[in-house]
Amino acid sequence: MAKNKRSINNNRYIITSVNPQSPISEQYRTIRTTIDFKMADQGIKSFLVTSSEAAAGKSTASANIAVAFAQQGKKVLLIDGDLRKPTANITFKVQNRVGLTNILMHQSSIEDAIQGTRLSENLTIITSGPIPPNPSELLASSAMKNLIDSVSDSFDVVLIDTPPLSAVTDAQILSSYVGGVVLVVRAYETKKESLAKTKKILGQVNANILGVVLHGVDSSDSPSYYYYGVE
């Protein structure tokens, strides 16, 4: 598998905003439509995005899916739940002095931590805030569950970017607080065994897997991103 390794452009730009007419943006809209249909069918508003391993493109996918929903007219909140290697503040070019950590430690209100974005008036974000010494404990707290319940009353879509499942249990913990889970896998890199293990881990907490985003397919093979269900 290593012989077929392809590089992925990891530049922090959001193609659904920069080039909304591109084929990749169209694929993200397809992903959005599929997720939207499942959320409406199941009566849920929140989901998290995770991956089996690092560098799969989950944060890129999270940002673009959030923008795609906002472009549809949905009121969207993106939460950076990766309290180990946060990226939302870099991607959206906003400050990270106050964020999720501050809310969970009762140092800030939700209202004070929420930030608007220049990309869409429909899209707001909560960055990670300062990196804490105990990320898993904070994410497993009742404060996190209460946060998700609270914002789900105010937004049409609540999307949480979480760490990879191979390294820590954060996504597994949070999956019981949200309506569903979207997995991001990296073409030519993610092994079937790793994906099967991830599915098993999520199954242990009865997580609702909405589907999988395949990230980084070479354009000469097929569209760069596509979405499919998990059996």
Automatic annotation (TrEMBL):
Pfam families assigned: AAA_31 (PF13614)
GO molecular function, one term: identical protein binding
Protein name in UniProt: Tyrosine-protein kinase CpsD
Domain of life the protein comes from: Bacteria
Reactions performed catalytically: L-tyrosyl-[protein] + ATP = O-phospho-L-tyrosyl-[protein] + ADP + H(+)
Key word ATP-binding present: yes
GO BP, sorted A to Z: capsule polysaccharide biosynthetic process
Pathway stated in the Swiss-Prot or TrEMBL entry: Capsule biogenesis; capsule polysaccharide biosynthesis
UniProt xrefs under NCBIfam families: eps_fam
Function text: Involved in the regulation of capsular polysaccharide biosynthesis. Autophosphorylation of CpsD attenuates its activity and reduces the level of encapsulation. May be part of a complex that directs the coordinated polymerization and export to the cell surface of the capsular polysaccharide.
Family to which the UniProt record says this protein belongs: Belongs to the CpsD/CapB family.
EC supergroup of this enzyme: transferase
Ranges of residues in domain AAA: 56-176
Keywords assigned by UniProt, alphabetized: ATP-binding, Capsule biogenesis/degradation, Exopolysaccharide synthesis, Kinase, Nucleotide-binding, Transferase, Tyrosine-protein kinase
EC code: 2.7.10.2
Record GO cellular component, one term: plasma membrane
